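Hi V.,

You were right to ask for the full record rather than a summary. Here it is.
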Amino acid sequence: MDTMSKTPTAPTPDSDRARRQALGLAVLLLTLGAGYGVAQLEVRAPAALAETAELEEAEAEEEQRGPSVAEIMAEIETVATRHRVPPRLVAAIVAVESEFNPRAVSRRGAQGLMQLMPATAASVDVQDSFDARENIEGGVRHLRVLMDRYRNDLPVVLAAYNAGDRAVLAHQGIPPYRETRQYVIRVLRRFDREAAQAAARRIYGPRAGSRRGASVMGIRLVSFQGPMPAVVRYRARGDVLGEHEPVMPAVPPAPAMHAVPAMHAVPTMHAVPGMHAVPPQPVPPRRAENP
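Predicted structure:
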């Protein structure tokens, strides 16, 4: 039996050229695809970063701006009603203390809408005094304690809220501090003007408020009843919160009226018999004077 030897067939030039072309095309496609992907990432990355920055900036502005006056008034209504405190009184305190600014800070360190000192905030379990809800909750709770302690005597309650319990107890009433006295009257004017007048007479006497030179210099909008604000006037130039507003003067009583005796009727004139009416005499013309 004859054996046949098999020899490998050498590739033709045409087949080798086709393989090289296919390999080059594959490499070209991979290179173009990778370049296109990198280009898309470079285009989309700045847009995504810009969008993220805009969102963060909007959130920061929203957080800095805080709740609106209407939202604060709604929260005051809810919290004050729950603690049996007049919502109008709480709104008056917020208006005088912070002008409805949740980020307000005083020179003495009081913070937030109702200007809670750190010790007072800790006593009413307020963790963040710049949070509007926490601040209102803590301030109303503190106000409720003072109202119970001083038997709802609002001038004394407000004096204690402003100057502290120690000052009220030391002076057995409203302390003789100018700031505290003005604070009491300013808050009461926004709550009840008749109560403010009574407090002014109680603090300064019946002739209080006769200070000269006081005139209406500005107008501020403050709301107590609802979301729509009411007009509140201030009395001194540059007075942001009405610190220099004079006390309302007491109205002097009207003089007593005395009864006037009754007037008697004039008797009627009767005609006398035999008397005739005299006709009117003509008036002679006036002679012209010589020049």
